């Protein structure tokens, strides 16, 4: 059984994923697959260089992700071009890797699950949600951003309301780690039952 896990920036996806991982659930992360997809020598990196030029490459020959982010942040058409290139590759890598999964169910962590047009054939969608204020605080602290910069990123993502409406399951991440882990345990037990039925 495949569970698609998503949530806005600063919602706590990494923390929740770690809670599932300690229960021996296999995790496949879109961000990790994205790094593999644009590694030196990969066809996707060649296409990115051809499209954006060598200024998006570091001296070591690796992708300068920050430079690329800066370019696409204010250029929706360039962002769309990049998503159309990378997201099918990322999805395929995740599902290929999941063929070797030995856990009763596995998690696909896809931060932009709703933002892209690429469909992920998952059985359920789990959304990690938190208040806007906590999102802002966590994003500022983690990424060293100003409040306005953090808000700009949040504004580019789909709304919390949209995510919640399309979720099968929701984890509320507004409390402490113990409370979060209890929510994960309940869902874990539920997913185990579903995977056996």
CATH overall fold name: Rossmann fold
Q: How many β strands by DSSP?
A: 5
Q: Could you list the spans in which at least 5 consecutive residues all have pLDDT below 50? A: none
Largest sheet: 5 strands, parallel
Strand content: 5-15%
Total count of domains: 1
As laid out across the biggest beta sheet, the strand order is 2-3-1-4-5
Secondary structure tally, helices? 9
Task: Report the CATH architecture.
Answer: 3-Layer(aba) Sandwich
- CATH class division: Alpha Beta
Helix content percent band: 40-55%
What is the fourth-level CATH superfamily?
A: P-loop containing nucleotide triphosphate hydrolases
Quaternary structure classification: single chain
Q: What shape does the CA trace take? A: globular
Distance between the termini: 11 Å
| Order of helix and strand elements from N to C terminus | EHEHHHHEEHHHEH
The value of Rg in angstroms is 17 Å
The chain-level structural class is alpha/beta
Mean pLDDT: 93
Binding site for ATP: 10-15
Subcellular location: Cytoplasm
EC number: 2.7.1.24
Keywords: ATP-binding, Coenzyme A biosynthesis, Cytoplasm, Kinase, Nucleotide-binding, Transferase
